[in-house]
Design a protein that fits this description.
homodimer, about 350 residues, alpha/beta, Rossmann fold, seven-stranded parallel sheet, 16 helices, globular
């Protein structure tokens, strides 16, 4: 069937077929909803009732770069805050090609079949360039997107990882207030985005596949160290033997790392997002982790640490934004750069000059 | 011989035997020099004449946390700047145990034997805790420390890697103005300090040893990618075969990385700091690198990029320092942290409140 040409603003990207769930009727009601401004109190009360449209709208508010939206976004977040925090937050990373979407689809469906409410968010710092390479095309999770107990939201876009991550971090609060008890944060296995995801989740899952060049990525010490579980995906058909070998390897590698503060011993398992083999046991592992870390109080302690971390990160991010976006600084920076380039002043003096100018503004 | 108990301020640390070079006479002249204040013009003119005592004093000025020293430090740096830049800057990293000090001693002696003037600096972000675990004990480089064409300076200490790195970066300028044509920056192979060193050198050398657990560290992708040469140290005696095997492995691993912007093909070599085998050829490699990157203009282009980078890094560092060291912010931060901890406000709102307070101060 040829997709109907749709010129509405809901049709965010050319070339992407609208998901079937977006019927004309729903589209119309969303449009009407968007047209009318809504108070933060109304938004909060709808979110607390589990209204996914209100949730989406509030997340859009958080993501907005329009400064007038900032105070309203804050009101909504603070209104939701007392109702948040009751969830397990799971980070999932893996290099492209490892089958993250298929895995999350299978894993998410398993959770909703157990009566869980699952929200899937993403952090993709490259999304401002690629317009969302992960979760951008929601139809990659065909089943989950139609599930009424699931909510899928692509990565916010932004200039900096810090900004993108901060927005996702706030979206978690809203999803929890909306009744989602299992929050999955997906990220792509390149760059610093894993560290950002790790700093906002309770459980960090590293998705791998056996073979081909993967050894190199596998022994990326920093990410291995963060993992609470390593799951070797695509363990089906001819791949099963290789996956089991990889499992032995990773188990050995993990033993080289010191014991975690959580007291948790990271697990290595295999699974197939296609045959569903091993999917249920991953959820059991996460449950075991939750029981352990709640009994030894690591769970809450870590969430408190994460809150502190995010407050400081936001401050650091905003200090820079305010400086570099100041029109006088934008002008002066160009001149100073030139002076440094021509060795008239040292980079350090250039910095001091700009900082002194900034103080006077 | 029992070292004489020395109570002068020159005896910076207990338990460290004074290097033999520090004769009573020299000590006295340094003390006299230190007692009298010296203008920045005098300091600059002495540095330009190759005076190592003046150089040390200027570096101490840079490292000072006393705000009144800041403008004088800036004067000295800017006065030295036109005479800096004529050197090759070499970064050397490797995990503890790889034999960095012994290697730098052998390599540095080789360079001075060729008529080079060698300055060895260090970046050790842990130095404020350990009081300088690398280069802290200068006697580890017994020969080089006595060489009149060498200058060795331990890592600055500081709260943050950014601060420590910035000070080393400025020290490079002073060393160059003082006539040192080969600058070696040592760092320890843990954490983010390699990235800092990489951002201030022309050539980045990764020191390794063959065998035992090293595979894991070796395939730390980020650092491998930065390396312009991988040198397998301790290739002597029974180790030679293992070192040659490791060489083959690393060569293979390097081929997986994309071509560098410099056009340079990273080299893998073996060496022994004890037998001196392979030391001379490392210097030849660095010369080849310099010729290539000066002919394709990458050398200067990269130094300019590094200057820009360091200006922005300094700004970012200072923006944070000014904020977090403000007495009103120190007080308010504690209260806000408590409100975030008790879920009264979100981390984001806490950040915004503090930033708004800061604007009014």
């Amino acid at each position: 069937m040829e997709p109907k040409k749709n010129t509405s603003a809901l049709n965010e990207r050319d070339g992407v077929t609208q998901p079937e769930t977006l019927s004309t009727q729903v589209a119309k009601s969303i449009q009407q909803f968007r047209r009318k401004t809504i108070s933060s109190d109304e938004l909060i009360s709808k979110i607390l009732k589990g209204d996914k449209v209100a949730l989406s709208r509030a997340i859009t508010l958080i993501e907005s770069t329009n400064p007038t939206h900032l105070s309203k976004a804050n009101e909504v977040i603070n209104g939701c805050l007392p109702h948040a925090n009751n969830s397990i937050r799971i980070g999932i990373t893996g290099v492209p090609g490892v089958g993250k979407s298929t895995f999350i689809e299978a894993f998410g469906k398993h959770l909703t079949s157990l009566g869980k409410k699952v929200a899937v968010l993403a952090i993709d710092p490259s999304s401002s360039l690629s317009h969302g390479s992960i979760l951008g095309d929601k139809t990659r999770m065909e089943e989950l997107v139609k599930d009424e107990n699931a909510y899928i939201r692509p990565s916010a876009s932004g200039d900096s990882l810090g900004g993108v991550a901060r927005k996702t971090r706030e979206a978690i609060i809203l999803c929890e207030a909306c009744g989602f008890d299992t929050i999955i944060i997906e990220t792509v296995g390149v760059g610093q985005s894993e560290t950002a995801v790790h700093s906002m989740v309770d459980f960090f899952l590293l998705l791998k596949i056996a073979g081909a060049g993967d050894e190199l990525q596998g022994i990326k010490r920093g990410i291995m160290e963060m993992a609470d579980a390593i799951v070797i995906n695509k363990a089906d058909g001819d791949n099963i033997r290789k996956a089991n070998l990889a499992k032995v390897e990773f188990n050995r590698a993990l033993h080289l790392f010191p014991l975690k503060n959580s007291g948790w011993n990271p697990k290595v398992t295999t699974c197939s997002a296609i045959t569903k083999e091993g999917i249920a046991s991953i959820w059991n592992t996460i449950n075991e982790y939750e029981i352990l870390t709640k009994s030894n109080d690591y769970f809450n302690h870590r969430r408190e640490e994460q809150n502190q971390y995010w407050m400081l990160e936001t401050i650091n991010e905003q200090l820079k934004n305010q400086f570099y976006n100041h029109p006088e600084i934008i002008k002066a920076l160009e001149i100073t750069k030139q002076k440094v380039l021509t060795h008239q002043i040292s980079p350090f003096t250039g910095a001091i000059e700009l900082l002194e100018l900034y103080k006077k503004l």
